[in-house]
Design goal:
The chain has three helices and two strands. The protein is mainly alpha-helical. Among the domains are: 48 residues; 34 residues. A two-stranded antiparallel ribbon has the order 1-2. The longest helix is centred in the middle third of the chain and has 42 residues.
Length: 134
């Protein structure tokens, strides 16, 4: 029990020291009231944190936060997946349209392979030895 009290007091004193240094580091008085307001709100939360821990409110808030965060990240990943699928389909459609000419392409190094316009094209590609992490 004393460890919890010691940790609580230590957190409070540490924050007050950092807040005092931040107030002293401000060049003028224009933002001083906003910094004092913000630090005051955080001090109130720090003072009430033991009550929150005893009543179990912190677990409820953490559960809500993690649930919402997970849902937001899932929606973001799904939207990126849809975007990449759409752009990938457009890319391959454009590639198929541009490859429909057949024969020797002027200046591209692409030539048709096979007989009767099979539509298969090969481009000369040189690959260098790539090493990652060296």
């Amino acid at each position: 029990m004393l460890d919890v009290l010691y940790e609580w007091i230590q957190n409070l004193v540490f924050f007050l020291l950092i807040a005092g240094m931040a107030l002293d580091a401000l060049p003028g008085t224009a933002y001083r009231k906003y910094v004092r307001f913000f630090t005051g709100m955080v001090v109130i939360l720090l003072l009430a944190s033991p009550i929150f821990k005893l009543s179990g409110i912190t677990q409820n808030f953490e559960g809500l936060y993690h649930g919402e965060e997970y849902g937001r990240m899932l929606r973001e990943v799904e939207s990126m997946e849809r975007y990449f699928q759409e752009t990938g389909e457009e890319f391959w459609e454009n590639q198929a349209e541009s490859a429909g000419g057949g024969g020797e392409s002027a200046g591209t190094g692409v030539e048709s392979v096979g007989t009767g316009g099979s539509g298969v094209e090969v481009e000369d590609i040189e690959v260098e030895d790539v090493r990652i992490g060296e």
